[in-house]
């Protein structure tokens, strides 16, 4: 799928890298990287996000600091300045300074990047079904609000993740995700199209990005400020790793920089 068939999203490509950008977050440096980046880690990838950057970052003196975590499928969040080695066990990071780069890794779970268009404050998080059931997106939004952001100013990009048609889960999983949405959560998931039938008894198909969108909306983010990448990690082996498809523990990175 190229940019012509991805309204609001486009590939940024160089000789040694490629990543997706969400047009709505064009005012901040960010990217959802594919599998085709030579196994580079955030300390190398951050140079790519710089204007005119390259993987080497030669000659640059304004490289943002790198902040990441050891993700544990939780609702734990942390200020970016505290996310240094050894990497803390959290799934959401919120910028608390300038020139910070915040990173999340994913294979089929949803990488989520958030930006306050007024203050320049940003956040990143890793949202799989366990994280959503635990309320990770609500925690990140509330964390931004506690730092002074207004929910009306938040822009959100939901990156490449497994599509609902390929994501079979037990009914109990869907019920736990629904419970995180509060009253009438199951009905909301159904109406949003996040639940689909499955041929295996006691199972459903779950669209985690539609569930994530619902949790963001119920946390005060405006629906038209939430932008979802149309690409599916499971069905696009040329660009993305997928745990469900390959059963291998490899990931792609997503990052965003504060200003």
Automatic annotation (TrEMBL):
<keyword id="KW-0479">Metal-binding</keyword>
<dbReference type="GO" id="GO:0017061">
    <property type="term" value="F:S-methyl-5-thioadenosine phosphorylase activity"/>
</dbReference>
<comment type="similarity">
    <text>Belongs to the purine nucleoside phosphorylase YfiH/LACC1 family.</text>
</comment>
<dbReference type="Pfam" id="PF02578">
    <property type="entry name" value="Cu-oxidase_4"/>
</dbReference>
<protein>
    <recommendedName>
        <fullName>Purine nucleoside phosphorylase</fullName>
    </recommendedName>
</protein>
<comment type="function">
    <text>Purine nucleoside enzyme that catalyzes the phosphorolysis of adenosine and inosine nucleosides, yielding D-ribose 1-phosphate and the respective free bases, adenine and hypoxanthine. Also catalyzes the phosphorolysis of S-methyl-5'-thioadenosine into adenine and S-methyl-5-thio-alpha-D-ribose 1-phosphate. Also has adenosine deaminase activity.</text>
</comment>
<dbReference type="InterPro" id="IPR011324">
    <property type="entry name" value="Cytotoxic_necrot_fac-like_cat"/>
</dbReference>
<keyword id="KW-0808">Transferase</keyword>
<keyword id="KW-0862">Zinc</keyword>
<keyword id="KW-0378">Hydrolase</keyword>
<dbReference type="InterPro" id="IPR038371">
    <property type="entry name" value="Cu_polyphenol_OxRdtase_sf"/>
</dbReference>
<dbReference type="GO" id="GO:0016787">
    <property type="term" value="F:hydrolase activity"/>
</dbReference>
<dbReference type="GO" id="GO:0005507">
    <property type="term" value="F:copper ion binding"/>
</dbReference>
<dbReference type="InterPro" id="IPR003730">
    <property type="entry name" value="Cu_polyphenol_OxRdtase"/>
</dbReference>
């Amino acid at each position: 799928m190229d940019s012509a068939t991805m309204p609001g999203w486009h590939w940024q490509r160089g000789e040694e890298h490629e990543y997706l950008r969400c047009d709505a977050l064009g005012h901040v440096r960010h990217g959802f990287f594919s599998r085709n980046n030579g196994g580079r880690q955030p300390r190398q990838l951050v140079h790519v996000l710089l204007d005119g950057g390259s993987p080497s970052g030669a000659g640059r003196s304004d490289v943002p600091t790198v902040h990441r975590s050891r993700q544990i499928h939780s609702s734990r969040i942390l200020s970016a300045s505290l996310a240094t080695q050894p990497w803390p066990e959290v799934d959401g990071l919120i910028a608390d300074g300038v020139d910070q780069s915040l990173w999340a890794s994913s294979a089929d779970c949803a990488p989520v990047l958030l930006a306050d268009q007024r203050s320049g404050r940003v956040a990143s998080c890793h949202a799989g079904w366990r994280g959503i059931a635990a309320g990770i997106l609500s925690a990140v939004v509330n964390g931004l609000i506690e730092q002074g952001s207004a929910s009306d100013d938040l822009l959100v990009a939901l990156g490449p993740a497994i599509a609902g048609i390929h994501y079979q889960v037990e009914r109990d999983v869907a019920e736990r995700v629904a419970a995180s949405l509060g009253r009438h959560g199951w009905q909301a998931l159904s109406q949003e199209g996040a639940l689909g039938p499955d041929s295996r008894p006691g199972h459903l198909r779950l669209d985690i990005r539609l569930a994530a969108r619902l949790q963001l909306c119920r946390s005060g983010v405006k629906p038209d400020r939430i932008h979802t990448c149309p690409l599916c990690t499971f069905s696009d082996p040329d660009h993305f790793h997928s745990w469900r498809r390959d059963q291998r523990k490899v990931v792609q990175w997503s990052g965003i920089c504060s200003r």
